[in-house]
C-alpha cells in the first residue's frame, strides 16, 4: 500500500500476534471484582483463556494468519486452547459462546479430531433446534450471564448485529462442510432478517439491535464495532459458498455492503484514520477494534474488485492510524470493552478502554489484508 512502511507493518503485526497469544487480564483486575456491564467491566471478557466471544474472535484472527504463515506454534496454540477448554468444561451455550467454533470447524479439517467434530455438530444442531428465537424466527441474541458461566441472559425478542459474526458464520460453515442444506438456508434467513431489521435505509449503516417488544432499534445508535461485524464478516460469509450462492441473494447482500462502506468512508476521521465509537458522533472517542474490522472488510472488498480504488486513501489512512495505536509491546490501544445494548449514545461513549483479545485479532486481520493488497 502506497505511503505505508511495510517493514513497520510486518514488525507490528508480529508484536500484536505475540501479545494476543499471551494476553492476560488488565492491571486493574482488582477493580473487576465489582462488575459493571454499563461501562464494559465484565471479567470474563479479558485475556485469551476464557471460552467466550472476545477470545473466539481472537482465535479467528490467529487462525487466519496461521493459514498465511503456516506457523506450527500458532497451530499448537490453537489445538491446546481448544483441548484445554474442553477438558476444563465449557460454559453455557449461547450466541457469544458459539464464536470459538467458527475457528474450530475449519481448524479441525486438518486434525480430524472426533471430539472436536462432535462438539461442532452437536452445537450446530443446538442452534437449529434449541436456541431461542424472536418473532419471524430470528436468532435471539442470548448471551452469557454475568458472573455465572453456566447461566444465560435471554435478551428476549432481541436481535443484535453481533450475531451474524458470532453465530451465523459458524452455522453456514457447518452447512457447507457437511452439505446440510437446512443449515445453509437458515444462515441465509438470519442474514436477511438482520439486514431487514437492523440496516438503516437512509444511511446504509447498521443499528446495534432491534427489539420486537417495542418494535424499535433501541437508542437508534450507529455503533462502530457493531457495524464492523457486518463489514468484516459478510464477505467471509459469501466466500463460504464457493460461488454457489443464489445470484439474487448475493447481489442483495453485496449492495447492502457497498451502501454501508460508502457511508463509512464518509464518516472516517481524516486526521487519525480511525472511526468514532458512535459513528455519527464526533464527540465520542476514536476506537481501534471497530476501525480494524472495518478496514479489513474494505480491503477485502477492494481486493475482490467489489470496491473501486477510490477507497484506497481511506484504508491507507486507517492502516496508518491502526499502526499508530499499537504499543511497543504489541498491545492494541484504544479498544472499547464489551458493549451491551444501549438506549443512547452516552452508553457507548462511557464503555471502558482496555486491551482485549478481539482488538488484537481484528488488528491482525486488517494488517494481513493490507499485506495482501
Beta-strand residue percentage: 5-15%
**How many strands, what sense, and barrel or not for the largest sheet?**
2 strands, antiparallel
**Average pLDDT over all residues:** 95
SSE order: HHHHHEEEHHEHHEEHHHH
Shape: globular
Please give a structural write-up:
With 373 residues, the chain is mainly alpha-helical. Helices cover 54% and strands 5% of the residues. The chain has a two-stranded antiparallel sheet. Strand 1 and strand 2 (148-153) form a beta hairpin. It starts with 5 loop residues before the first helix and ends with a helix. The relative contact order is 0.15. Mean pLDDT is 95; it is low at 31-38.
Topology:
Elements: H1 6-21, H2 53-69, H3 72-88, H4 99-111, H5 114-129, E1 143-145, E2 148-153, E3 158-160, H6 162-178, H7 181-198, E4 209-211, H8 224-239, H9 247-267, E5 275-276, E6 286-287, H10 288-303, H11 312-323, H12 345-349, H13 357-372
Helix pairs in contact: 1-13, 2-3, 2-4, 2-13, 4-6, 6-7, 6-8, 8-9, 8-10, 10-11, 10-13
In short:
By secondary structure, the protein is mainly α.
Keywords summarizing the entry:
two-stranded antiparallel ribbon; about 55% helix; single chain; about 375 residues; two-stranded antiparallel sheet
Amino acid at each position: 500500500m502506497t505511503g505505508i512502511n511495510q517493514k513497520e507493518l510486518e514488525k507490528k503485526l508480529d508484536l500484536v500476534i505475540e501479545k494476543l497469544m499471551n494476553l492476560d487480564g488488565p492491571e486493574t483486575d482488582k477493580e473487576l471484582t465489582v462488575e459493571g456491564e454499563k461501562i464494559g467491566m465484565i471479567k470474563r471478557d479479558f485475556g485469551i483463556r476464557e471460552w467466550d466471544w472476545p477470545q473466539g474472535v481472537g482465535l479467528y484472527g490467529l487462525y487466519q494468519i496461521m493459514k498465511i504463515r503456516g506457523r506450527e506454534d500458532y497451530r499448537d496454540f490453537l489445538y491446546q486452547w481448544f483441548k484445554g477448554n474442553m477438558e476444563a468444561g465449557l460454559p453455557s451455550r449461547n450466541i457469544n459462546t458459539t464464536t470459538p467454533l467458527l475457528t474450530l470447524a475449519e481448524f479441525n479439517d486438518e486434525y480430524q479430531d472426533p471430539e472436536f467434530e462432535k462438539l461442532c455438530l452437536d452445537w450446530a444442531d443446538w442452534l437449529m433446534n434449541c436456541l431461542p428465537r424472536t418473532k419471524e424466527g430470528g436468532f435471539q441474541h442470548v448471551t452469557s450471564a454475568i458472573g455465572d458461566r453456566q447461566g444465560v441472559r435471554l435478551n428476549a425478542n432481541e436481535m443484535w448485529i453481533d450475531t451474524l459474526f458470532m453465530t451465523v458464520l459458524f452455522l453456514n460453515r457447518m452447512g457447507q462442510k457437511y452439505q446440510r442444506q437446512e443449515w445453509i438456508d437458515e444462515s441465509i434467513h438470519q442474514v436477511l432478517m438482520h439486514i431487514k431489521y437492523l440496516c438503516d435505509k437512509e444511511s446504509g449503516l447498521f443499528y446495534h439491535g432491534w427489539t420486537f417488544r417495542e418494535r424499535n432499534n433501541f437508542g437508534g445508535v450507529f455503533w462502530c464495532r457493531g457495524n464492523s461485524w457486518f463489514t468484516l464478516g459478510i464477505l467471509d460469509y459469501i466466500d463460504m459458498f464457493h460461488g454457489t450462492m443464489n445470484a439474487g441473494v448475493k447481489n442483495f447482500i453485496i449492495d447492502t455492503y457497498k451502501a454501508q462502506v460508502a457511508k463509512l468512508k464518509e464518516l472516517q476521521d481524516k486526521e487519525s484514520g480511525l472511526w468514532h465509537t458512535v459513528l455519527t458522533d464526533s464527540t465520542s472517542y476514536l476506537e481501534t477494534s471497530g476501525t480494524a474490522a472495518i478496514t479489513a472488510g474494505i480491503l477485502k472488498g477492494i481486493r475482490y474488485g467489489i470496491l473501486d480504488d477510490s477507497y484506497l486513501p481511506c484504508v491507507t489512512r486507517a492502516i496508518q492510524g491502526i499502526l499508530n495505536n499499537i504499543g511497543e509491546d504489541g498491545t492494541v490501544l484504544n479498544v472499547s470493552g464489551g458493549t451491551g445494548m444501549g438506549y443512547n449514545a452516552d452508553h457507548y461513549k462511557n464503555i471502558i478502554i482496555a486491551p482485549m483479545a478481539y482488538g488484537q485479532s481484528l488488528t491482525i486481520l486488517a494488517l494481513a489484508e493490507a499485506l495482501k493488497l
